[in-house]
Design brief:
This protein has helices spanning 22-34, 54-63, 86-100, 114-130, 132-135, 184-192, 220-233, 255-261, 271-280, 283-291, 373-386, 401-409, 422-437, 447-455, 479-497; strands at 10-11, 66-67, 70-71, 75-79, 106-111, 139-141, 144-147, 152-158, 171-175, 201-206, 241-245, 298-300, 323-328, 336-342, 350-358, 390-395, 414-417, 441-443, 457-461, 464-468, 505-506. The chain has 507 residues and is of the alpha/beta class. The strands form four sheets. The chain has a nine-stranded mixed beta sheet with strand order 1-11-4-10-9-5-8-7-6, with helices on both faces. A seven-stranded mixed beta sheet has the order 18-15-14-13-16-17-21, sandwiched between helices. Strands 12-19-20 form a three-stranded antiparallel beta sheet. Helix 13 crosses helix 15 (479-497).
């Protein structure tokens, strides 16, 4: 199986007279001479020379297209799936721009978060430090590299930076532009480079992501992608904008589709990794990260039929089982739910059984409905009495703090777990998905649980993918699903640590 890595799916045209320029050749030669692999990967071992592929050389000739007056492109948008060598290419371009660029140059590695921006910067620094010829030319700092010979500097910058005034960039590398929370930093850098004229350019290397940013509007990355499409089609004439975007449509499970979307497929990326990933990620997440396809922000969570095949109508839990009880509570016009999950031992599957559900009747159009708090508390106490080896009762304390305190005073092992926290729910949702796909759980076929699981959609934002309702006030409830996810998260943790449970707090 093979697919030509060039041209990409979307490519804005660059006149031949700008390609193969001396500047592009100089940058390419610099990278081939000095760049090294900084992390062990399919591409090679750490410390080995970075070998540019033909498609990468062609890409560089387009990015640094120029004539005697300077660079042609003010902005370049490069879209590639994961494991395509984005970081290595970005760091190499940044270091080359620091060394070969104009005097008094300012080079920036930019990302939504400083840790992300440091990835490209750190690769560049390791390359420079590994070269006897380059290492003596620079002064190295935590977030900066100086090139005293021409008065240039390379810095790390993020959307978290409190001030971006006084910038005068010659080269800006935006890493994972899709993660920018809004377009503010992009606009600042675009305005700042204006005084440099054709000496300056901005390059954004990114995977696809959510079409929307934190403001609810189109993200800057998706806006540029749409603009690049218009330029590529000839609908807009803009000689200063360049886009190369790899993506593929079709069956996301088809290796031929994988090959079309990934220029380094079978070379920089391992097909076996795709075979594993397609079984363990949601369709939306796989398409975004592996096929470079934009998402609306919400996608179906579990593949069709994957939950039903885990059903066992005779499955039960007993008094000798070690259990985590998941609790998701509400007061008015919403659900309160309880789900028991057994702690897996010796490679056995976790068993999942709903314990209680307090849900407004869909036909009730009358006055505001409220959950019977006393009944919920009594149900939890009864369950604990009947299942004394319940290790934890995990619950979101929002509006239920009094009940948590009451139950804790009765000796129940209450554990606070903020199910609205992306930091908690992103890895917990992924863990549960993998367990379903690997058939590491079983359930009793409860219809309400199946309905709530089916109602879960995946919201993907800067934090990552996690399960949510399809909309804020949706009648399609997911509370039993939330209970199952948080209880399974804690059950699998306890199954590996086997520590005694004490009151805990998870933000």
């Amino acid at each position: 199986m093979s697919s030509e890595p060039w041209p990409p799916r979307w490519l804005t045209s660059v006149p031949e007279e700008f390609l193969g320029s001396k500047r592009a050749e100089l940058y390419t030669s610099f990278i081939e001479r000095f760049a090294v692999i900084t992390k062990d990967s399919v591409a090679g071992r750490s410390g080995e020379p970075l070998v540019l592929r033909d498609w990468q050389k062609t890409l560089l000739s387009h990015i640094f297209a120029s004539d005697d007056s300077g660079l042609r492109n003010r902005v370049s948008l490069i879209g590639m799936p994961r494991k395509s060598g984005k970081s290595a290419l970005g760091s190499s371009m940044s270091l080359a721009s620091l060394t070969l660029g104009p005097k008094g140059g300012e080079v920036y590695s930019v990302a939504a978060e400083k840790d992300q921006a440091r990835i490209v910067f750190t690769d560049a620094r390791r390359t420079a430090e590994a070269s006897p010829e380059l290492s003596g030319l620079f002064r190295f700092y935590r977030d900066a590299i100086e090139f005293p010979e021409n008065g240039s500097v390379y810095r790390v910058l993020s959307a978290e930076a409190y001030s971006k005034e006084g910038l005068n960039p010659t080269f800006v590398l935006f890493d994972e532009l899709h993660a920018q929370p809004n377009r503010a930093l992009w606009d600042v850098m675009s305005l700042a480079q204006a005084s440099r004229g054709k000496m300056a350019t901005m390059v954004a290397i990114t995977t696809a992501g959510s079409m929307r940013d934190s403001t609810g509007g189109d993200s800057i990355a998706y806006t540029l992608y749409q603009y690049g499409q218009a330029v590529s089609r000839g609908e807009v004439d803009d000689e200063t904008f360049f886009m190369a975007w790899w993506e593929a449509e079709g069956d996301y499970r088809d290796p031929e589709v994988w090959a079309r979307a990934n220029p380094g497929f079978g070379d920089l990326s391992d097909p076996a990794d795709f075979e594993s990933s397609v079984k363990r990620t949601t369709e939306g997440e796989f398409k975004t990260k592996r096929l470079n396809v934009w998402t609306s922000g919400q996608e179906t969570w579990l593949p069709d039929g994957s939950w039903d095949k885990l059903a066992d109508s005779e499955l039960t839990i007993g008094p000798d089982d070690e259990i985590v009880l998941g609790f998701d509570g509400s007061f008015t016009n919403d659900c309160t739910a309880l789900v028991a999950v057994t702690i897996p031992k010796d490679g056995e599957k976790s068993r999942i059984v709903p314990v209680g559900l307090w849900e407004k009747d869909v036909n009730n159009d009358g006055p505001e409905w409220r959950v019977d708090i006393a009944d919920v508390e009594a149900t939890i106490v009864k369950f604990f009495q009947e299942h004394p080896k319940t290790r934890e009762i995990v619950c979101d304390p929002f509006r239920w703090q009094r009940s948590i305190e009451v139950l804790a005073e009765k000796g129940l092992p209450m554990v606070e777990y903020y199910s609205s926290s992306p930091r908690r729910m992103v890895p917990a949702s992924q863990k549960f998905l993998e367990a379903v796909m690997d058939e590491q759980i079983a359930h009793n076929g409860d219809a309400a649980l199946a309905r709530h699981i089916e109602n879960c959609v995946v919201k993907t934002d800067q934090a990552g993918p996690r399960i949510v309702k399809d909309k804020k006030n949706s009648p399609r409830k997911i509370d039993l699903g939330i209970c199952a996810v948080i209880a399974y998260d804690r059950a699998t943790y306890l199954g590996t640590t086997m520590e005694e449970a004490v009151p805990q707090f998870f933000g």
